Amino acid sequence: MAQVEIVSFGYLHGTPPPAHLTLDLRQHFRDPHVSPELRYMTAHDETVRTAVLATPGITALVDATAAAVAAFASGPSAGPVTVADGCAGGRHRAPTFAQVLADRLSADGHTVTVHHRDLHQPVVDR
Q1: In a domain, 7, yes or no
Q2: HSE-up of 75 (CA within 13 Å, CB side)?
Q3: In this structure, is residue 125 part of a structural domain?
Q4: How many independent structural domains does the chain possess?
Q5: At what angle do helices 58-73 and 93-107 cross, to 10 degrees?
Q6: How far is CA 64 from CA 60, 61, 91, 123, in A?
Q7: Which DSSP category does 28 fall into?
């Protein structure tokens, strides 16, 4: 099993962090920011997590990413694996995805750390 670091981030707050896998959640997955009642919430709020996880394709992407991490971990030069996942502001989709992925990888036996780079950033007016 591997040591895995997951970093969630917002593209509107800077460039993606260095990673073996970088996932861009902006275009293909529903953005809670567009709902006024969710806009100022974060992935710490159950309502946000429920909205993100109800988006078609999210759980399949978690499964595919877990499989990719396992592939990296089984390589001949196995070492730590870093996964970065980003959305627009880094407050909704990316941190929710990161935590669900972390839970999945931990259940699979990996040692996982999670860092939410931009979760604390203010809402971007867009």
Answers
A1: yes
A2: 12
A3: no
A4: 1
A5: 50
A6: 6, 5, 22, 30
A7: T
Whether the CB-CB separation of 98 and 7 falls below 8 Å is answered with yes
Q: Using one digit for the tens of pLDDT, what is the confidence trace for 1-13?
A: 889 999 999 999 9
Say which residue the tokens 């919430």 belong to: 41
Measured from the Cβ of residue 36, the count of other Cβ atoms closer than 10 Å reads 7
Which one-letter amino acid corresponds to residue 13? H
CA dist., res. 70 & res. 113, Å (int): 16
d(CA 80, CA 110): 10
First to last CA, the chain: 41
> In the chain, which residue ranges form alpha helices assigned H by DSSP?
36-39, 46-53, 58-73, 93-107
The pair phi, psi for residue 119, each rounded to 5°, is: -55, -35
- Domain range for 20 is 3-116
pLDDT one-digit tens code per residue, 67-120 = 999 999 988 877 899 999 999 999 999 999 999 999 999 999 999 999 999 999
Residue 70 within a domain: yes
Give the alpha-carbon dihedral of 24, 41, 113, 19, to 10 degrees.
20
